[in-house]
Design brief:
Layout lengths: L12 E3 L4 E2 L11 H6 L4 H9 L14 H7 L10 E2 L2 H14 L2 H14 L3 H6 L4 H15 L6 H12 L9 H4 L6 H16 L5 H12 L4 H12 L7 H7 L2 H16 L1
Parallel strand pairs: 1-3
Antiparallel strand pairs: 1-2
Helix pairs in contact: 2-4, 5-7, 5-8, 7-8, 7-13, 10-11, 10-12, 10-14
């Protein structure tokens, strides 16, 4: 007594690089939903993205919740042309969901990926005590929520911050740069180190005070600090990076760069 359903087929899905039908032999595209999950793609984003393969709603809007998609989905708007599996579009869409999700929710989902240990990156974090790991993940998300495409990138950042003292930063980026006087760089580094040793806990304010005391601002102030705390000349808000580390680690990182410049 069951009514036969009406079947509808979406268009073929093509690889945008080869312009041919997507197949299991394509190495540029993950093949299974489980692979997307372990790389930190959110199920909400996957649902949204797949719905748009060979179909589009009225208007330019692209981010829809599951309930919204069910409400607006119209089979008559299905395209007859091939649909292209655009990885960049999926990354963008996943990034939008990450940006709009709470830090607490993203922390829980990242912790879940670590516990499942489906990637080498996740397995490495299992060696960190759970309470410490959760705090580290939360702080890392707070810093990088606006610039990551998937949660696997969060996991990679967490590992790099956890092991920062094992890194060998290249301070020659400052030494060999004519735009930065060695004495000015040392004044910034030693000034901030002294403030941390004297108990300063508002890192943003401490950096501003160092800039005011030395008369150094802008690039001259932040370029050396980016290098000291991340090994890179560009970074997110450096005082937020400092807060990820312990105070002792912050002081150690400053001291390493100071000693290198004085050598």
């Amino acid at each position: 007594g069951w009514d036969h359903p009406t079947f509808c087929h979406i268009p073929l899905i093509f690889n945008p690089k080869t312009r041919k039908k997507l197949s299991k032999r394509d190495k540029d595209t993950l093949q299974f939903i489980s692979e997307y999950k372990k790389h930190g793609y959110l199920h909400e984003a996957i649902f949204n993205f797949i719905a748009f393969l060979g179909w589009s709603p009225v208007g330019e809007r692209e981010i829809y919740s599951k309930d919204e998609l069910i409400k607006v989905y119209d089979p008559n708007r299905m395209s007859k042309a091939p649909a292209y599996f655009d990885q960049k579009k999926l990354d963008w869409m996943n990034a939008q969901y990450i940006k709009n999700m709470s830090v607490d929710e993203l922390t829980d989902r990242t912790m879940e990926l670590v516990k499942e240990g489906e990637t080498e990156e996740a397995k490495r974090l299992q060696s960190i005590p759970e309470d410490q790991l959760k705090n580290l993940i939360m702080k890392t998300i707070h810093v990088h929520q606006r610039d990551v495409n998937k949660l696997l990138e969060v996991i990679e950042y967490v590992w790099s911050y956890y092991n920062v003292l094992d890194e060998n930063f290249n301070y020659d980026l400052i030494k060999d740069n004519e735009d930065f006087a060695n004495d000015d760089v040392l004044a910034v580094l030693t000034g901030l180190k002294e403030k941390l040793e004297n108990g300063a806990d508002d890192y943003s304010q401490a950096i501003k005070e160092v800039g005011k005391a030395t008369g150094i601002k802008g690039r001259g102030l932040y370029f050396p600090l980016n290098l000291a705390f991340t090994g890179s000349t560009s970074a997110p808000q450096i005082y937020e990076i400092m807060d990820i580390y312990s105070r002792d680690t912050d002081i150690e990182l400053l001291d390493r760069m100071i000693k290198s410049l004085q050598a």
